[in-house]
């Protein structure tokens, strides 16, 4: 039997609502004083909770082809941060309410070293009273793109769905409703965040060369996106670079955080680069939900939460 999960999302821990997993056409809307956007979570062979009145979608087309083939889960986010924030302060990762140091399996240190190969910008303290692990949002995402709106919405309190329609937001990528002009998966291009002169003799605003800037434009080709990911992780791995780049309320970021390391049907974690090392997560679960949090590390402002909770271990 597979564990029964509840997946919820919202602007903060006090206002989480059950997220409609695998429903690309109904992403969860997030509207707060700090963030406007939408979130979709996809889980391969999903057997968990669904919102009241909705049918469970066990399989998502996302996993059948292209970028999603071979993945086992995905968090896709699209949104506007309603204040200027540096890409150094904008972080994404996990927070826990209670200590987990007594529940960590043997081999955790090896696992954390392996994690550095996947995400060299990861910082963590899993042994504190409130454990955490965070990375720069723009560096840790598997794919991420930025679009600058032609005009900033007039009010941060406006209706979010109306904002999507009236301010020329980019489409929310989905294999379920893609066509010749709309992408099925998130593309990789953060070049719109980087102020760069159009004249070759103008002074550069940011320390970046033409080749790196070109690599950050992932495009649509099958080989270009991995190059963009590697270049992005390397270039934004430099704190000085992250501090020089700001995300403003005029920018819409679309990002996909996905991998194939967790099997939600067995709750087993397989670690790459370890020769087959893995953990049965059920043995170490202490009842806490696993929260993915996007926040401003400089002042603690939370932009959005995604929470995974085991409702029944043997449903």
Provide a compact summary of the structure:
Helices cover 15% and strands 30% of the residues.
Write up what this structure looks like:
Residues 5-311 form the Domain of unknown function at the cortex domain. InterPro entries: Duc1. It comes from Tilletiaria anomala (strain ATCC 24038 / CBS 436.72 / UBC 951). This is DUF1769-domain-containing protein. The chain has 315 residues and is α+β, with helices and mostly antiparallel strands. It has one domain. It is built from six helices and 19 strands. It has helices at residues 108-118, 137-140, 160-166, 210-216, 224-235, 239-244, and strands spanning 4-10, 17-18, 28-31, 35-43, 73-81, 85-86, 90-95, 123-125, 132-136, 143-148, 188-189, 217-219, 246-247, 251-259, 262-263, 268-270, 278-280, 290-296, 302-312. The chain has a seven-stranded antiparallel β-sheet with strand order 2-1-19-18-7-9-8. It has a five-stranded antiparallel β-sheet with strand order 3-4-5-14-10, with no helix packed on it. A hairpin with a 3-residue loop joins strand 3 (28-31) and strand 4. The chain is globular and about 55 Å long. The relative contact order is 0.23. The mean pLDDT is 84.
């Amino acid at each position: 039997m597979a564990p029964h999960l509840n997946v919820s999302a919202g602007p903060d821990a006090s206002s989480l609502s059950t997220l409609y997993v695998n429903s690309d056409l109904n992403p969860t809307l997030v509207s707060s004083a700090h963030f406007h956007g939408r979130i979709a979570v996809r889980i391969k062979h999903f057997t968990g909770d669904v919102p009241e009145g909705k049918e469970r979608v066990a399989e998502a087309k996302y996993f059948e082809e292209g970028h999603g083939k071979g993945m086992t889960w995905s968090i896709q986010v699209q949104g506007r941060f309603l204040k200027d924030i540096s890409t150094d302060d904008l972080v994404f990762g996990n927070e826990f309410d209670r200590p987990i140091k007594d529940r960590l399996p043997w081999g955790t240190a090896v696992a954390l070293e392996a994690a550095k190969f996947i995400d060299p910008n990861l910082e963590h303290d899993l042994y504190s009273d409130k454990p955490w692990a965070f990375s720069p949002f723009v560096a840790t995402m598997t794919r991420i793109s930025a679009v600058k709106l032609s005009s900033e919405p007039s009010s941060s309190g406006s209706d979010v769905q109306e904002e999507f329609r009236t301010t020329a937001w980019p489409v929310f990528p989905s294999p379920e409703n893609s066509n010749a002009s709309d992408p099925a998966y998130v593309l990789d291009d953060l070049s719109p965040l980087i102020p760069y002169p159009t004249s070759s003799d103008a002074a550069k605003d940011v320390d970046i060369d033409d080749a790196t800037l070109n690599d950050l434009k992932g495009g649509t080709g099958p080989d270009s996106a991995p190059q963009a990911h590697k270049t992005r992780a390397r270039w934004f791995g430099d704190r000085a670079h992250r501090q020089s780049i700001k995300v403003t309320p005029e920018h819409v970021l679309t990002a996909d955080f996905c991998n194939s390391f967790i099997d939600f049907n067995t709750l087993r974690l397989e670690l790459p680069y370890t020769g087959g090392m893995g953990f049965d997560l059920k043995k170490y679960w202490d009842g806490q939900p696993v929260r993915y949090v996007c926040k401003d590390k400089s002042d603690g402002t939370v932009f959005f939460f995604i929470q995974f909770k085991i409702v029944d271990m043997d449903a």
